[in-house]
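REQUEST FORM: STRUCTURE PREDICTION
Request ID: SP-0412
Submitted by: Lab K.M.
Chain count: 1
Length (residues): 271
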Amino acid sequence: MHWLLWALAVDMCLALGALLVRKLGFYRRLVHFALCAAFASTAGILSAPIMWACGKRASVNWVVARTFYYTTRVVLGINVEIEGEDILQRARPCVMIGNHQTMLDLIMLGRVFPMQTVILAKKSVSYYPFVGWFMRLADDIFISRGSKQSASGMFQRASAELRAKQVSVWFFPEGTRGRFADGPDLLPFKVGAFLLAYHAQVPVVPVVVMDFHNLHNSRRFWSTGGTLKIKILEPVSLDGLAEDDLKPVMDRTRESMLVELKRISPPRIVH
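STATUS: Completed
RESULT:
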């Protein structure tokens, strides 16, 4: 109990200090974010035996996602509004792709992530405390960057799961966080998500989250609550295409996501 009192006292001091020094408020919110993530991951670990018994192992991710979202909505004051959520229900199984901006993308995932969906992540993530633990329990897919053998195995395994288990996959096609000083934009897409969907014979569902600049900017030590808008676009079918046709489809999908990103993003404020 003493440690809890100390933690509350420190948090109160940081809250008071944040009134004078912006950085203190920023780092205080990062600590709250990390605590919410640890809490949600623990919930996922505890739920794993139940999900396994129900034959819904991949839904451990859903438990973590919703726990994290509803916790951060209270603690960080970020609410998510989704347009087109019904599309995910009728398009599954599928490969979902989304734009990648900050670590706060986890809040977006927390709200939009459907049941029976796995995550593709770097192999190093599997060793992270809490996060890596629940991801292993959820049977998520870990790949080694730059390893052709790992990528080939990943596509084979993910394709089999999509077809046999009716499990969807989440993918960030940019491959890394996109940070743009001049306004919302997207990095070039990597073809992996479309190859995966092609081999699994499932559609690609684009998910667009608005520009985070007004809610979170690590370069300016700015973080606040507010509303995060998400738009889910119509599924992109790859039926009847050859593998050589994937890049033009990928480029058109990226362009449609960029148009939507600019539409739903508010004008940037000066921090």
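NOTES: The beta strands are 78-83, 95-98, 117-122, 141-143, 168-171, 204-209, 216-217, 222-223, 226-232.
Reviewed by: T.R.
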